[in-house]
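Model it.
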Amino acid sequence: MTRPRLTCLMAGSLDGRLHSSRWTESPDGSAADWTGAYETLHDRYDADGWIVGRVTMAEMAKGEPHPPAEAATPTRPLHVARDRGPYAIALDPGGKLHFVAGELHGDHVVVLLGAAVPDSHLAELAGDGVSYIVCADHDGGLDLAAALDVLGKRFGARHLLLEGGGGVNGGFLAAGLVEQFDLVLAPALDGGASRAIVEAGDAGLKGKVQLKLIGVDQLGHGALHLRYAVTSAQEAV
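Modeled.
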């Protein structure tokens, strides 16, 4: 099996919200302390890459559309610009992300795309030194399992961190692809309707996944590091 292990690593408030700028204050520490603990854990895992959604990646990519005036027909479904990690992996079904280079802070960019993305966008990515995988499923979404298989077989990834928004995390969990869920739990509340750590639509995840506690660590500043093994409901039967 070439598919990499997937650990979902997130930081959240007690009511399961993502955006630390909205969290309440605590005498034990600040949002900077809690996100710093999260970043320390990220580095400690020394994984082969990390996965986020389009919105999160757009905040880092900062590129503008610049399709090449002339370019050969790009390859589908795969373009490998670099086959060694670490990797910065983004889900972008509609091909809306643009980059200024093929790396982010030294991590090679790999984009997971839908089938409808035009050749001009693929040529732009290839020209910027970005790798891509066109991985559409039969419903028009992304075939996440197939994408992970390619990341393992062609890019050599063995362990990846899933650090997406709620929808991205929910998609991988619903597909039964997450093996471990790690949460930096901050002593804070949001109380509003901001994005949750996991979002899986009206169907939810009940009956699809089960979590088993495997460890709890105190991180300081009132935060906890919770670690859960994840199994699909079918596997647990």
